[in-house]
Amino acid sequence: MKQKTWPCNSDGHHHFASLPFFRKPNHDSSTSTKPAKTHLSFFNPGPKTPPPPSSSTPNPDFSALPYDVLARIAAPLTLPSLKTASLVCRAWRDALKPLREAMVFLKWGKRFKHGRGGVKVNLKKALDSFLKGAARGSTLAMVDAGLIYWEMGKKEEGIALYRRAAELGDPTGQCNLAICYLQAYPPKTKEAIGWLYQASFAGHVRAQYQLALCLHQGRGLGRSLPEAARWYLKAAEGGYVRAMYNTSLCYLMGEGLVQSHRLARKWMKKAADYGHSKAQFEHGLGLFSEGDMMKAVVYLELATRAGERAAAHVKNVILQQLSASSRDRAMVLVDTWRALPSSR
Length: 344
What we know:
Blueprint: H1 67-74, H2 79-86, H3 90-95, H4 97-114, H5 123-135, H6 139-151, H7 155-167, H8 171-183, H9 189-201, H10 205-217, H11 225-237, H12 241-253, H13 261-273, H14 277-289, H15 293-305, H16 309-319, H17 324-335
Helix pairs in contact: 2-4, 4-5, 5-6, 6-7, 7-8, 8-9, 9-10, 10-11, 11-12, 12-13, 13-14, 14-15, 14-16, 15-16, 15-17
């Protein structure tokens, strides 16, 4: 799928036990007739009331949870995890049945959407499968259905599904909802920032990058370069390519981070190796200035092919300084180059 800027494709503290909590046995002697000594001589406790018999009824177990709570707990689980949890006992198996079914619909939805598993691409069937999965509580299906609605131009339906997933604690749903709020007219900036923080603390790298942008630009809250740089770096460490590039610039210019040309170069190269065209151009220029002509040509040619027009001029200047065999070898390296997999 063509890379898009947006949108991308759980907190109660209740404790439940499947076994009863038994009453602590009474160790008082049943043969003693003397009243227990007390500091208050005028207090007569009277005859002791025997404890009620132990109940054999267990405390509420997992299956007794309200469905919305159950969905919040189990919705983020993968199908293998759901199957494993379903093996615990019959009650758990019965309680998790809707979510197991949801994961099957999710799987079929992805097949229809991407043409996998021997089926042809069919967005109508994909949406129908995602909606069935969403109706059974899968937040992943909610997000995928929301994305299809968004791409169809049905933004309200898409936002409603993102909101459902976000409220159930899904970080991708929270991130998508936040971006929708930022793009709204007028923007719902306060709500967007709140959802971005939730998703960012949950480790969602795209949300971390979007939050860093808001902090960098002072959008919806005070401008803070140190905090923006911190979130850029966190997203970069999580594999988000755009954050790698911005982290490099922060180190290069000393914005929010202590200036370090070594770290700037490190993150620029990483972004370039992950396929960021501007980073490929910048890294190629750096290699050229260091005299490494062959590698410079490779990165500049990659940037040129990705649409960075300015890279073509510098590349042509360098090519004139290389032998025919070196030029041919550089082009072979470009043709066989593959970007590292990333979190986008």
